[in-house]
UniProtKB/TrEMBL annotation:
One of its GO terms (molecular function) is peroxidase activity. Residues 140-161 are annotated as: Disordered. This is Glutathione peroxidase. The keyword Oxidoreductase applies. It comes from the Bacteria. Belongs to the glutathione peroxidase family. Gene3D superfamilies: Glutaredoxin (3.40.30.10). The lineage of its organism: Bacteria, Bacillati, Bacillota, Bacilli, Bacillales.
Length: 161
């Protein structure tokens, strides 16, 4: 299995195969607009600006499972991200990243890259998964990890063909 086996609905409601990102290095993050980590949108966009031409793609998945910090509609989320953080990377429709209705992509990501002490569940907003050009999960980064702290790992993956 690889990330390319999954599909997700974009924030505009279009069904999309992640196979469209084949050959790219991916950061997949669950996001929220009313969280202490929300300013990470700015850092994620900065990474996207710096590395997208080299093959980095960032996929944002809004989630309202943590203290209801993503209460808005898809339209409101998209507008918030564009107006406040200039987000240009792909955003997807709201998903569950844990529990009974977990999106299959996040079920796979958390199985492939468990958290601290082997815990599989996503614990909070802005958990970030790094995926190589072949669709394999390379690492999982906690909400506390600044996206900028992932630069060396991203650069290493981008240099691999």
């Amino acid at each position: 299995m690889s990330v390319y086996e999954y599909r997700a609905k974009t924030i505009m409601g279009e069904e999309k195969s992640l196979r469209e990102y084949e050959g790219k290095v991916l950061i997949i993050a669950n996001t929220a607009s009313k969280c202490g980590f929300t300013p990470q949108y700015k850092e994620l966009q900065s990474l996207y600006d710096q590395y997208s031409e080299q093959g980095l793609e960032i996929l944002g998945f809004p989630c309202n499972q943590f203290a209801s910090q993503e209460p808005g509609s898809e339209e409101e989320i998209q507008e918030f991200c564009e107006l406040n953080y200039g987000v240009k990377f792909p955003m997807f429709a709201k998903v569950d990243v844990k529990g009974e209705n977990i999106h299959p992509l996040f079920a796979w990501l958390t199985k492939e890259a468990p958290g601290i002490l082997g815990s599989k569940a996503v614990k909070w907003n802005f958990t970030k998964f790094l995926v190589d050009r072949y669709g394999n999960v390379v690492s999982r980064h906690s909400p506390q990890t600044s996206p900028m702290d992932m630069k060396k790992e991203i650069e290493s993956l981008l240099s691999q063909q």
